[in-house]
Design a protein that fits this description.
Elements: E1 8-12, E2 16-20, E3 68-76, E4 80-89, E5 98-103, E6 108-113, E7 121-133, E8 139-145, E9 161-163, E10 166-168, E11 175-178, E12 187-188, E13 196-202, E14 212-220, E15 223-229, E16 232-233, E17 240-241, E18 244-249, E19 252-258, E20 263-266, E21 274-282, E22 295-298, E23 320-321, E24 328-336, E25 340-349, E26 357-363, E27 368-374, E28 382-394, E29 400-406, E30 412-413, E31 423-425, E32 428-430, H1 433-436, E33 441-444, E34 461-467, E35 478-483, E36 489-490, E37 495-503, E38 509-517, E39 523-529, E40 538-541, E41 544-552, E42 557-567, E43 570-579, E44 591-599, E45 604-605, E46 615-621, E47 624-634, E48 644-647, E49 654-659, E50 665-672, E51 678-683, E52 689-692, E53 698-701, E54 711-716, E55 722-729
Parallel strand pairs: 36-44
Antiparallel strand pairs: 1-2, 3-8, 3-10, 3-11, 4-7, 4-13, 5-6, 5-8, 9-10, 11-12, 14-15, 15-20, 16-17, 18-19, 18-21, 21-22, 23-30, 24-29, 24-32, 24-33, 25-28, 25-34, 26-27, 26-29, 31-32, 35-37, 37-42, 38-41, 38-43, 39-42, 40-41, 43-44, 45-55, 46-47, 47-48, 47-49, 49-54, 50-53, 50-55, 51-52, ...
């Protein structure tokens, strides 16, 4: 920051030192002494800011003691109210601070004095009457630092700061004004961020509705195409698309698109790999919609091809048929990684594009290299082929154009297909419009070299390409994926998740081994795992879960159903790895990481969420293992309006269950219609306890045991005519 003077020097040492003619010697940098706890001033519910409450400046206190007003120019996408002014305070930034809100031209809209400041960190002062601001209009927020030593990050506005709905422009932002009183700041230096902010409350606090009909379709071994229906904001006559669509892959934000955009191509993915996708809407006020339904998309295997094409019957599926009947030559720019020959032109015929048709191959500059046979008039729709009389030789890494002449128009189209992403189906590639300066090309009113990139449209023209050498030997492509349907677990509860292994390659894999180590950082053990279900297969576990299969044929798969029990809380990662005797030509999908969050222990066991109804059940459920063939899960009965458990059969009068971990039994509900019935609870190394039951009412029993119970025996005087629910257990640490 520069002081006004006839002569000045700027020294960059921990900040800015301004030396003015006649001033005292430059001060040494303000020492950074330890402070008391920094109290972050929180934003209230629904309020927005540019900088949040956890970000920190590069320099907490500049080496400048001049009295100065510092601020930032900002705007909002939506109308609302400025509730207050915020700034980050460092050592030496003392005195009485005032915050101000200004129009872009310098009219003062509101001012406020900061009270009860902390020694450092974020400070906030709220206007007595919030100040209303308009959408898409620039304002300036600032504060006056009478002792200087403001927080600063040099080049903090080298690029714009966008935190919708708030935005701070780049380059000429970060404003200051030196003076003995507060005033409108207009100067800027080094695009500096002086850590001044607002507490903004948008008028609109209602989020848009979630996007619907999300689909994820593989485009190639490295790309997945997403489409969805728009997130809708507002209601009645004023409703419309949300301002933005946010695309997430595996819970990570990967794209922010305009609300009118309803498709996205996710490129750079690993072949034969599954990804989870979701889309959310965001309105002008920054309100986020609920998530769309999460969908799974799996990239295509990177198989050796001979011949090769850009699209197949799965990925080559046009959206529309052009209604225009103007004759047109339509095509696509493409290249190949390896030399080879083109034997045919492929095209997707629309239902009313009846021809005749003829195909062409061109150099990138428009030299006609070859012409195919001409078809007679056609009917129907779908992929068609036109053969060249003689295969045409292509050089590697050279751009060509393939096209066909639609004599009656009406050709298949998908507009905006090449906007930001191309198609990668190695060894063939069709570049994006960005890479190729336009792709999806046409020539109207006659057959000629197509050059017009109309709406970056995919006209669904393709080649049949034969590599001079196959793009890879036939070998295995083992892929492993994991799924955890419940989404979250609990300390001491059994987890159920699946591990699936698939051979996407053209050759049989032998000596297949799946390895899953115990996740680090948790007391955790594998409880059980099913075998792959083929002759010679096996599973075993101690420190690792290891399963094996002697062979896995092309296209075959197996799934391991895993039961495991964590003792502890946090998020752990199940890392599965698959291998075989053969080299795998897509090693990127040989491992898969599955995050599994584990929360606190289940301390009240209710049976309404247990699987099944009116049937025998046993085995592990939640924190309990139920003894074999002695328990029955019942539909709502008697005093229980949800599912409960009883004994499996009239001849049984008792059944056992055991607990995972050290648990005390704190209580249990029982119900019977029988007068005089009793319930007896026995625990290993504990005295038996007997409780009378009141007919026609729920009786809550409370054992007096003070130590953990590993195995609980439940006995009734009337057998299966007593049901149980709401088993209370002591928490696990």
């Amino acid at each position: 920051m520069l002081r006004h003077a006839s002569r000045w020097v700027v020294t960059v040492v921990l900040g800015f030192t301004c030396i003015q003619t006649g001033c005292a010697p430059a001060e040494s940098p303000t020492p950074e002494t330890p402070e008391a706890t920094e109290a972050a001033q929180p934003l209230l519910a629904g309020e927005r800011s540019l900088l949040g409450t956890t970000a920190l400046p590069a320099v907490a206190a500049a080496d400048d003691s001049g009295a100065v007003e510092v601020g930032v120019r900002f705007r909002s996408d939506a109308p609302g109210r400025i509730m207050g002014v915020r700034f980050y305070k460092g050592p030496g930034n003392t005195g009485t601070h005032t915050g101000s809100l200004w129009t872009a031209s310098g009219s003062l809209l509101g001012t406020v004095t900061f009270q009860n400041e902390t020694a450092s960190g974020w400070q906030e002062a709220r206007f007595t009457t919030p100040v209303t601001i308009a959408a898409d209009t620039n304002y300036v927020v600032s504060y006056y630092a009478p002792a200087g030593h403001y927080a600063v990050t040099g080049n903090g506005f080298a690029s714009a700061l966008d935190v919708p709905p708030l935005h701070a422009e780049a380059t000429s932002n970060g404003l200051y004004r030196y003076g003995s009183t507060s005033g409108f700041p207009t100067n800027s230096f080094n695009a500096s961020n002086y850590w001044v902010d607002v507490a903004f409350q948008p008028n609109d606090t209602t989020p848009p509705r979630a996007p619907t009909n999300l689909t994820a379709v593989p485009n190639s071994p490295t790309a997945i195409d997403l489409t969805w229906y728009a997130s809708v904001d507002g209601s009645g006559e004023v409703q419309g698309n949300a301002r933005w669509h946010l695309v997430y892959r595996n819970n990570e934000l990967i794209a922010e698109l305009p609300g009118t955009t309803l498709r996205y191509r996710d490129t750079g993915r690993t072949p034969s790999t599954a990804y989870n996708y979701a889309v959310r809407g965001r309105d002008a006020a920054g309100n986020l919609s609920p998530s769309s339904t999460i969908v799974l998309g799996t990239t295509l295997p990177n198989m050796a091809c001979n011949p090769c094409s850009l699209w197949n019957s799965v990925t080559g599926n046009p959206q529309f048929e052009n209604a225009d009947t103007t004759p047109a030559e339509i095509g696509v720019k493409f290249r190949t990684d390896v030399a080879g020959t083109v034997t045919k032109v492929r095209y997707y015929k629309g239902s009313t594009d009846n021809g005749p048709h003829v195909g062409h191959l061109w150099s990138a500059t428009g030299t006609l290299l070859a012409t195919t046979e001409t078809t007679p008039a056609e009917t129907g729709f779908g992929w068609r082929e036109l053969a060249f009389p003689t295969p045409v030789t292509l050089a590697a890494n050279t751009t060509y154009v393939v096209s066909y002449f639609a004599t009656g128009g009406r050709y298949a189209i998908t507009t905006n297909y090449f906007n930001t992403a191309g198609v990668d189906m190695p060894p063939l590639h069709a570049p994006s419009t960005v890479e190729a300066s336009g792709n999806g090309v046409r020539n109207l009113n006659g057959s000629a070299f197509p050059t017009e990139a109309w709406l970056n449209t995919n006209f669904w023209v393709d080649v049949t390409f034969v590599p001079s050498q196959p793009s890879g030997p036939a070998t295995v492509d083992l892929a492993v994926t994991q799924s955890f349907p419940d989404g979250t677990g609990a300390n001491g509860d059994v987890l159920f998740y699946d591990i699936t292994v698939t051979n996407n390659g053209p050759a049989t894999a032998t000596d297949v081994v799946l390895d899953v180590p115990i996740p680090a950082g948790l007391n955790y053990f594998f409880y059980s795992a099913t075998t792959p279900g083929m002759n010679g297969s096996h599973c075993g576990f101690f420190s690792d879960l290891q399963c094996g299969a002697p062979t896995l044929a092309p296209g075959a798969s197996f799934t391991i159903h895993v039961q495991a029990i964590p003792f502890g809380t946090g998020t752990f990662t199940s890392q599965a790895t698959i291998s075989a005797s053969q080299a795998d030509f897509v090693p990127g999908n040989n491992t898969h990481a599955l995050p599994i969050p584990v929360g606190p222990s289940t301390n009240l066991v209710t049976f309404d969420t247990f699987p099944g109804q009116d049937e025998t059940f046993n085995g592990p459920h939640g924190p309990i293992h139920f003894g074999s063939n002695r328990w029955y899960i019942a539909s709502p009965w008697g005093g229980f309006d949800t599912k409960s458990v009883s004994f499996n059969g009239g001849g049984l009068t008792q059944a056992n269950l055991s607990f995972f971990g050290q648990r005390r039994v704190l209580g249990l509900d029982a119900f019977t219609w029988d007068t005089g019935a009793t319930l007896t609870l026995k625990c290993l190394d504990q005295p038996a306890l007997t409780f009378p039951l009141t007919a026609g009412e729920i009786t809550h029993v409370v054992p007096t045991w003070q130590t953990p119970c590993s195995i609980l025996t439940v006995t009734t005087s009337n057998g299966w005519d007593t049901n149980f629910d709401n088993l209370e257990l002591s928490p696990l640490p």
